[in-house]
Amino acid sequence: MYDAIVIGARCAGSPTAMLLARRGYRVLRVDKAKFPSDVINGYSAFR
Question: Phi, psi at residue 12, to the nearest 5°?
Answer without folding.
Answer: -100, -40
